[in-house]
Each structure stands twice: as structure tokens, then as C-alpha cells.
Amino acid sequence: xxxxxxxxIRRIDTETFCRDILSARLYDSTPTDxxxxxxxxxxxEQWRTRRRRRGQHDIRHLSDDAKQAKxxxxxxERRYQRTGFESDRRAYQHACRTAGQCIQRSRAxxxxxxxxxxxxxxVQSTWHTARSLLHMDQxxxxxxxxxxxxxxxxxxxxxxxVSWIRANIASAL
Length: 173
Description:
This protein is mainly alpha-helical. The chain has helices spanning 14-23, 34-44, 64-83, 86-117, 123-133, 144-172, and strands at residues 2-7, 47-52. Among the domains are: 2-52, no CATH class; 64-133. The protein has a two-stranded antiparallel ribbon with strand order 1-2. The longest helix has 32 residues, at 86-117.
């Protein structure tokens, strides 16, 4: 997931904003800094924070060689689809193999760099890095029937517990 923050510029009340600018120290002869402009903007509009899922073909972590190989492969694929020539098909297949090797090498290098960044002898950070690389920290998603069964089990457990406590109190009296 990618988290980003932005201002809703379209929702600024322009009349209020202009009035605030005219009444602020920004028009005085005293020198101002950028923080005063930022404070004025922050007072008028609210920040929004959103999260987006990364796409399946995210290339931010690939090396430059792998990015170029992918571009070349895609270019040759479009060329082969346009012409249909056998020579273009062979060139495209060769580019596919080359791009795949470059991508695998790039991913292996990234994993190696992450593991090398861990301090030697620090077992906790080593395990943390290994788990993040293996995607083991993802939470399980339960469907509605599992949730309903869990709720009914909890409900029955606490109802039985309250009944057991009442019976113990009644027998003690």
C-alpha cells in the first residue's frame, strides 16, 4: 500500500482565503518566510490522506537494466503484433527471456541488499526482515460465515460463564 497526503485545493473558500491573505503579515514590508505561507494554507484547507494499493507490475524496485529490458520487450511485442513477421517474433521472444533474467537478477539483488542492511548478530531485525520479505505479516481475511461462527461461539461461552457464576453464588447462599 502506498500512503499519500494532499490538499483539497478545489474545496478552498476563495473569498475567505483572499481575505486572510490581505489581513495577514504577508503584505507588510517585513520579510516573511515560506512557513507563514504554509500556515495560511493549512488554516484554510484540510489535508486528506489516502492509501492506494500498488499495482501488480510495480517497477520502482527494479534496476535500470531491468526497466530498460521491460521497455524493450514491450516495444518488440507491439512491433510483432503490428507486423506479424517471424523475425519480429524471434526478437520478441529473445527480449522476453532477457527481460525475465534481468527482473529476476534485480529482485535477487534487492533481497540481498535488504538482508545485508541488517546488522550482523541482530537476530530480531534479521527475522523481521525475513518475515517482511516472505510476506508473512499479512493478516488472514475471514468470510462472513467464519465471523458469524466466531461471534456465536464467544456469545455462548460468556452466557455459559455467567450461568456458571450465578449457580455458584446461588449454591453458596
